[in-house]
Design goal:
Length: 209
């Protein structure tokens, strides 16, 4: 396993790989990409992008009529700026970074890659993988980086930011999780809490993301 970064010890920066559905990213994800690229403690050395279209994850369903009506009204009343979910192409943000375009294989609510593709990823000698996909990665992928593949989570229930408002919960949870082949093997690396917005799902989600 690679040694942890020591800002004062002259250790090399962490070799980071990025796992995406596509280069079309929301603002919150593009900011992460820019911060990683700007960090003196990390080198972004690989981008893995899906060959196929995004598959939406299964989520706890909000009551259909209530959810649709609320989202429409919420969108009219609240227009947070900046919009964390504004989609833009991040090709320029990732210019110069080697990219692999791979076909994900469904594995329940997760995706995996074929063994030869995992070996292609291993060849980049990643210290850390950062998964910004909506569907987590399983199989051998989480072990393809020395310190594992990490993903962000928003909220303790799905859809993020909805039930906190509907049920009057005071806090939103978010954090960083190390992926494993199955959910039981995952590890929470960091968890944070922030005040929930009591009036607007859109504004609440925007704030937490």
């Amino acid at each position: 396993m690679s040694a942890p970064v020591d800002p004062g010890g002259g250790r090399p920066p962490l070799r980071v790989g990025l796992f995406l559905h596509s280069f079309e990213l929301p603002l919150w994800a593009r900011r992460i990409v820019k911060e990683v690229r700007a960090s003196p403690h990390a080198d972004l050395v690989l981008v893995v992008v899906d060959r196929e279209a995004d598959r939406s994850p299964k989520r706890r369903r909000a009551p259909a009529l209530l959810h649709r009506a609320y989202v429409r009204l919420d969108a009219r009343l609240f227009r947070p700026e900046p919009d964390a979910f504004a989609i833009r192409n991040a090709v320029d943000d990732l210019s110069g970074i080697p990219a692999l375009t791979l076909t994900p294989l469904p594995a329940g609510e997760r995706d995996r890659y074929a063994d030869p593709d995992v070996e292609r990823i291993r060849a980049f000698r990643l210290d850390v993988g950062l998964c910004l996909r909506s569907r987590p990665l399983a199989g051998a992928v989480p072990g393809a980086a020395a310190c594992g593949v990490w993903t962000l989570f928003f909220g303790d229930v799905d859809p993020p930011g909805f039930w906190e408002v509907m049920e009057g919960l005071p806090l939103n949870a978010s954090g960083l999780r190390r992926l494993a082949d199955d959910r039981d093997g995952e590890r929470i690396l960091y968890r944070s809490y922030a005040a929930a917005d009591a009036r607007s799902v859109r504004r609440n989600r925007n704030n937490v993301y």
